[in-house]
């Protein structure tokens, strides 16, 4: 197992003297032994570059990459003892599954006999339930089976680190869900520290111990899935994590004794100060409501804002529905139960408990509450 650290890591492509592309800037990430880190962010935010610096395929321009406290910046990729899994599987097409799995062990020349290698290949094939496929060539496998072989090739050597670069991107939605659970289980079972790149927030939420949310090469937040969802450090994280998107409106804030009063275009409400960690010193705020936190006022008493909303579209998702509507504040999305009597054009009153409201500073976009 390996304790992975990135310390003030920066990567500039092109000539740093002539304003090259800053792909990653001042990145500090600490991944304890055996943890599963997910690097999450939109296209071009620097996820792959970060993973490649961990794997030794890219040199940092500044800063240190450390494995168990030892700086590995100058250690070549092949000597870092990391295993990488990519979205295109990268299997050898002319070799059988058995040969693909055993290849790394044979090449390492580590004193294993043919019988040892055969035993280890069988063990890993059993773990991944691909024993029946051992004599097949990659062209005879489905996408999910190929990805299992690619995973098998990574675990067979028991590396110090697993690095995954969007490994499920080429699989269909259903298989992606199955495989991400399998990767999660496999990683917990073998306990190898892992870093995993994805732009899919749902995938990140289900698989990660810690998520590093990146934007424009900068770390926005490093936290557990629960922290990045419930306590996003800023507007970017709040909007990138969670689905459907957070509703956002402008508001004015004033102090009223033990509460903050929030006034929006067509609704106002109070937030008790005890729900706010530190004093808010801002007159204008951005007010965020997660669709999951809105509910129909008739179903429960409320101290929150009351938002008269006309239903536009009802999209059932299992026992709940995503309802898109138009309120006096503007377009609104709610995820609610008890939706069966709702139809387009219906009027409903939505509300939210004050403790579930997010407030952001409109200038810095950092979380105020
Ligand atoms: P994606 O999800 O699209 O793969 P990403 O978050 O992995 O994106 P990176 O591939 O790390 O992002 O790229 C980060 C930035 O660095 C981008 O602006 C990209 O254009 C730039 N970049 C990446 N590799 C190179 C390179 N070899 N030369 C120049 N610029 C590069």
TrEMBL record:
Please cite one Gene Ontology biological process associated with this protein.
carbohydrate transport
- Segments passing through the bilayer: none
One cellular component term (GO) for this entry is: ATP-binding cassette (ABC) transporter complex, substrate-binding subunit-containing
Quickly give the catalysed reaction.
L-arabinose(out) + ATP + H2O = L-arabinose(in) + ADP + phosphate + H(+); D-xylose(out) + ATP + H2O = D-xylose(in) + ADP + phosphate + H(+)
Q: Which residues form the ABC transporter domain?
A: 4-241
The main location class comes to membrane
InterPro entries per the record?
AAA+_ATPase, ABC_transporter-like_ATP-bd, ABC_transporter-like_CS, ABC_transpr_MalK-like, ABC_transpr_MalK/UgpC-like, Mo/tungstate-bd_C_term_dom, NA-bd_OB-fold, OB_MalK-like
Which superkingdom does the taxonomy of this entry point to? Archaea
Query: Could you say which enzyme class this protein belongs to?
Result: translocase
Keywords, A to Z, come to:
ATP-binding, Nucleotide-binding, Transport
Give the Enzyme Commission number. Answer: 7.5.2.13
Localization (cell): Cell membrane
Q: Name one GO molecular function term.
A: ATP hydrolysis activity
Q: Which family does it belong to?
A: Belongs to the ABC transporter superfamily. Carbohydrate uptake transporter-1 (CUT1) (TC 3.A.1.1) family.
Its function, per the record, reads:
Part of the ABC transporter complex XacGHIJK involved in the uptake of xylose and arabinose. Responsible for energy coupling to the transport system.
Q: How does it assemble?
A: The complex is composed of two ATP-binding proteins (XacJ and XacK), two transmembrane proteins (XacH and XacI) and a solute-binding protein (XacG).
This chain belongs to the protein called ABC-type D-xylose/L-arabinose transporter
Q: Which organism encodes this protein?
A: Haloarcula terrestris
